[in-house]
Amino acid sequence: MGVTKTDHFTDEQNRIAIIAKALGHPARVAIIEYLLKVNTCICGDIVNELPLAQATVSQHLKELKNAGLIKGNIEGTAICYCIDENTFGILKDYFSKIILTVSNQKCC
Length: 108
Prior knowledge:
It holds the Pfam family HTH_5. The chain has helices spanning 11-22, 26-38, 43-49, 54-66, 85-104, and strands at 41-42, 70-75, 78-83.
C-alpha cells in the first residue's frame, strides 16, 4: 500500500491539523463556546442555540468528538456533551510554544 501525504509529517503535526480542521467551521466554534458557557449540555440544547437543523448539529458534534475536542456520555435517550480538557491542553502547549518563539524573535 502507498504512503499517504500525512505519513510525511509527525504525529504532533497531524494531530494539530485534525484539531484545527475541526475548529475550521463557525458552527463548531459556536458549539465549543456554548459548551464552555453551560459546562455540559444535551444535544437538544445545542440545537436550540444554533440556527441549524438537528442533523447538521449532530454532524458538527461528531466532527468535534472525532477530533477529541468534546466528549459525550449517554444519559437516557440523550447524549450529554462537554469539553475534552486533554485536547485543549495539547492546543495550549502548541500555541504557547509558538507565542514564546514569536515573542523572542527579532524578525520583520
